[in-house]
């Protein structure tokens, strides 16, 4: 994404990365600003003047999604014995335009909790409360898996058992250790 935007805006990747408006991005993932406002804020955070066009920004933005991984196979296995929910810090554009219908994981989940629909992001405790409310479960009966250490800590503080994802093999070993298969 950074490479694409740097080419489209005619500036170095280092500058683009250094200007990334993290706080505004969090607002976007909380559903507090529109797609267009996110673009305008991103463009405004770059050195001025710049020639970044909205169409180029969204092409770059959609590159963040990448390819589906073999974790989907683990989801399929887990679904045989457990409900599997998806809790994601994301934005409406990725879900509306890219994820729904194109990736198996969103279809496999028994339910979804997206940050932009809740007004909260992981690791904020409130999003975990919303997730257990929506799934109608007690957090102590839930296993949360995430690659972000802060999100794992947030889940644990909300009463979840939590694992940090590092790679598929490690996840399989962690699940086996917990007696989950």
Q: Topology, please?
A:
Layout: H1 2-9, H2 13-18, H3 22-29, H4 35-45, H5 54-62, H6 71-79, E1 85-88, H7 92-99, H8 104-108, E2 111-114, H9 115-118, H10 125-135, E3 143-146, H11 149-157, E4 161-164, H12 168-177
Parallel strand pairs: 1-2, 3-4
Cα-atom Rg, whole angstroms?
A: 18 Å
CATH topology of the largest domain: Rossmann fold
Main β-sheet, spatial strand arrangement: 1-2
How many separate domains make up the residues?
Answer: 2
- In terms of DSSP E residues, the strand content is 5-15%
Choose one word for the global shape.
Answer: elongated
Quickly name the level 1 CATH class of the largest domain. Answer: Alpha Beta
Architecture of the largest domain in CATH? Answer: 3-Layer(aba) Sandwich
Structural class: mainly alpha
Helical amount: 40-55%
Pfam families: Hydrolase
Quick recap of the structure?
Pfam families: Hydrolase. This protein is mainly alpha-helical.
């Amino acid at each position: 994404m950074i490479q694409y935007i740097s080419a489209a805006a005619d500036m170095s990747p280092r500058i683009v990365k250094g200007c990334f408006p993290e706080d505004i991005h969090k607002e976007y993932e909380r559903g507090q600003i529109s797609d267009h406002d996110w673009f305008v804020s991103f463009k405004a955070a770059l050195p001025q003047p710049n020639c970044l066009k909205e169409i180029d920004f969204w092409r770059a933005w959609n590159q963040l999604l990448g390819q589906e991984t073999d974790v989907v196979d683990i989801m399929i296995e887990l679904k045989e014995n457990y409900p599997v929910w998806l809790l994601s810090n994301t934005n409406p554009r990725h879900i509306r335009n890219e994820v729904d219908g194109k990736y198996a994981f969103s279809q496999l989940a028994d339910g979804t909790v997206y940050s932009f629909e809740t007004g909260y992001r992981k690791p904020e405790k409130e999003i975990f409360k919303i997730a257990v409310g929506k799934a109608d479960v007690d957090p102590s009966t839930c296993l949360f898996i995430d690659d972000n250490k802060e999100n794992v800590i947030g889940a644990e503080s909300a009463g979840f058992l939590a694992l940090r994802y590092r790679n598929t093999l490690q996840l399989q070993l962690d699940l086996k250790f917990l007696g989950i298969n």
